[in-house]
Amino acid sequence: MDVGPRHYCRNPRCRSKLPAPVENHHHAFCARGCYESFYRSRCLVCEDPMQRRREGQQIRSGHAKCAAEYRKFPHAFAFPVAKGQISHESLGSAHSTGTKFGLAGYPPARWCLRGWWWGDPGIGDLSLYDGEGLSLVRIVLKDGQWHLRSPLSWPCRVWPNLETARHGAEAIALASLALDPKIAARIAKDNTTPHPMGPPLNRQPVPPDAAIASGWKPTGEGVAPEIPEFLRRH
User: What is the pLDDT of residues 173-219, one digit of tens each?
Assistant: First the structure.
């Protein structure tokens, strides 16, 4: 167990500063999405690595002590909920009630990008998650404008409204993706392979005798006319 209050989110892909320090390290997460992605491959009580056998599994198989500890103190391990919200405290499956938790509770929309999904603004979760529940970008509301919290950028990206901020954050997430190895190899090959038409022809300098002679000559008697009075400088 960790000793001392926590000041930053425990999710290694977030690490945002918490609104207030917390003593219980199970509650040291800035949003439910960070909490669920952190414990997706860990036992909820002892935090040992585990591989889920079902979507709703929270305790590692064979950890009877962890299951008993969770039944005694469910609030100590569950993500803290705001007043007026109902938390899921039972180890049983909620399939019969139609309630879904975790990634299943946020089904990607048909028009979403690459299977990514946004957290619920109602609980303060303004992070963009990929299909595995990992946070890609995070935006926060400050002084009436939406700021990009992570990843860090210079200058800091700011948007006037939530819809524009989401579109901008999705563009940043796309730009941060690594190129597919096949595409990267094709681009490198195209940049190093000579063009089949050969290099461009060098433009030869025009010799002086090839210049086109001009037939311009002054007209009239060759004397400049007198400047009109209204054009004279006084």
Answer: 888 877 788 888 888 888 888 777 776 666 555 566 666 666 666 66
Of 36, 41, 30, nearest to 8 (Cα)?
A: 30
Signed CA dihedral, 38, 39, 42, 44: sign only: positive
Per the omega criterion (within 30 degrees of 0), is the bond before 155 cis? yes
Residue 110 has, within 13 A of its CA and on its CB side, a CA count of: 0
Predicted local confidence at residue 37, as pLDDT: 86
Distances in whole angstroms, Cα of residue 121 to Cα of each of 19, 118, 124, 184, 219? 16, 9, 5, 37, 80
Cα(119)–Cα(137) distance, integer angstroms = 11
Q: How far is CA 105 from CA 2, 40, 41, 100, 118, in A?
A: 30, 14, 17, 5, 12
Question: Which segments within the chain are labelled E, that is strand?
Answer: 6-8, 17-22, 117-118, 127-129, 135-142, 145-150, 158-159
For 127-152, the pLDDT digits (tens) are 888 777 788 888 888 888 888 888 87
Q: Residue 37 corresponds to which amino acid?
A: S
Q: For residue 13, what are its two tokens?
A: 């892909």
